[in-house]
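Milestone M4 deliverable, item 7.
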Amino acid sequence: MTNLAASPSGMALAPGQLDAYLARIGAARPTALDAASLSTLHRAHLMAFTWEALDAFMGWPTSIAPAAAYAKMVEGRRGGWCYEMNGLFGAALAALGFRVTRLCGGVHRETLGNNVVGNHLTLRVDLDRPYLAEVGLADAIVEPVPLAVGPIRQRGFDFSIVPADGGWLRFRNHARGMAPSFDFRPDHSDETAMEATRCWLTQDPGSPFTHALAILRHTADGYVALKNDGLCRVTADGVSEQRITGADHFADTLQTVFQLDVPEPGRVWDRVRAVA
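Output delivered:
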């Protein structure tokens, strides 16, 4: 179990980095370490950063280290995927004084078994009780929830935490979610497994991220998602879809819809056309 607040190994942001992070998400330093402050920061993080797996799709370097996520997402105008989104958020919370534990999870463990454990990083935050802080699943909750079995409803979308086999818990995403579920244990962390799985996800032809582009950004009432050349806007009431029509349209969408500064968007579009 890796506890960020107790770890000197670079898992918490430095003071100057914390200030820059808070400015990036448009949030003030909280006056209390409580559930309300955690919720405010959680939502601000998700509304500021785009979930994106561009690096895996393009074969660009990636890391599970929070320092790398900080450089990419705060100093650069980029987003990140679970290791980066939850990694940066956890490092910021630890710098603020929250007690944070990085948990090693498995998306699709429900169907693929223990081989996928390590393909997801999620966070436990201990306050009056344990909370699940989850900014890395792309299209899931926008505020933290008590780490307890039961139904969850946010913005009209239904989620739940249910018991799974072997002492695991299963977070079930909403019905339209890209990933239907991930499994985790409240006391299980394995940085080695996450690093090994990150390598597989970014390098193996069988990875879902190396042969399909996935980008997602939360909105006030849902989210907008790009998969290859298909752009969809999702709310609890429905889905609207359109196609990206060319390189200029693609570059403009990255800038205006997803607020990303992507190097050589024309190269990314060429790869999208090759796999779409």
